[in-house]
Prior knowledge:
By secondary structure, the chain is mainly alpha-helical. It is 54% helix and 5% strand. The protein has two domains: 111 residues, no CATH class; 73 residues, no CATH class. The protein is built from eleven helices and two strands, in the order H-H-H-H-H-H-E-H-E-H-H-H-H. Helix 1 crosses helix 6 and helix 8 packs antiparallel against helix 11. The longest helix is centred in the middle third of the chain and has 19 residues.
Amino acid sequence: xxxxxALFKDALAQRVLARSTPSGDADGDALDDFSEYLASxxxxxxxxxxxxxxxxxxxxxxxxxxxxxxxxxALSNLPTSISDSxxxxxxxxxxxxARALALAAIRDYVAQACAPPPAWSSTRATECELCxxxxxxxxxxxxxxxxxxxxxxxxxxxESMLNSVAWLCRPCHSTVHHVADNEELAKSFYTLxxxxxxxxxxxxxxxxxxxxxxxxxx
Length: 218
Ligand SMILES: [Zn+2]
Ligand SMILES: [Zn+2]
């Protein structure tokens, strides 16, 4: 399994996580199995350029063209086996929604795969604070910067808290932004403990612990 495939599976898991109910999946097995199924079905549909894309590989414009081709070509023939399973799990309402979900996950994957590698620094945690992997980390503003003006105006938090960060690996970081918008994060999920109280984050964490990514990259 390549790193890029693992990233793609994570991108699908994030989309599924946002749309499915956690009942009966306390250990994250169902999320893992279903994401693996979707990834294995969709990966072969993707052109080589997208499967292999990295920060250094291709000018972004070339990849955007590939994505557009994929959208008008392969995804317009999305097998009903895929849409049927998304529909039966209650994740997509119909074929169009299933196709839109697949495209959104592919775009997320390309964005993540082509993002510049995070810079290492000596002062921060070496393990992701959500999934405990030793991987390159990004920092998440627990009170997102876009909300700071509002937070100050409404007095939600003391100013000294505004710059608190959590060090998260890229998949965990993007999952946090998938489960809540910036204002919700600022208002209700402004510490790691509060995030960890969420059922979807707990499920994600268990899912992430099962994934093989976690080797140091770059
Ligand atoms: Zn992580
Ligand atoms: Zn963030």
